[in-house]
Amino acid sequence: GILNEKFEQLCSEALPFNRPLYLHQDQAIEKIVANNRNVVVTTGTGSGKTETFLIPILNHLLNEEKQGTLGNPGVRALLLYPMNALANDQVKRLRKLLANYPSITFGRYIGDTDQSYKDAKEKYARQFGGNHLPNELICRDQMQEKPPHFLITNYAMLEFLLLRPNDNAFFDAETGKHWKFIVIDEAHIYNGANGIEIAMLLRRVKDRVVQSQTGKLQ
Q: Does the pTM of the predicted model rise above 0.70?
């Protein structure tokens, strides 16, 4: 009774509908979805931390679809990674997870992301073969015009996005009104001076998208 009833339609081999959850996954999902809480998940490698944030975000998007607002372009979830390799891994996972659910969009915006669709499509064909999913935005032009529901980037690029006028669509006007989640993966590495910088960066993001209002972002 906590998750949207359309989860069965979204689920696939990448996220089996009848898959039992670990206790930490069950607790995190309930706290985020039912209690609107912020959470820190600290468990071992390979213990399914990704599901603790992916399932609540997907649930929010399914609820938006039910309300008729999912078609409005704009970031709902920022997935922040310390290294591009981790961001790339998450994109591969979303390709499998959202292959049969084209209404949910995602895009990876890093230094390696091409500006034009033509260049990005050629690079994609070289790297992976074939065509990309219709709901994967593969170039900067696409994302600047219609920001994806899932924005995947690193903290260095996020700094640039906040500064450049061409990237205002992620944060401002109608397309900047839908922010709900910020995910900080590998949070334990953000210590010392680096941790201070990331904390300030996230404050700037919150100030930009929700004017620092408490409870607007999870």
A: yes
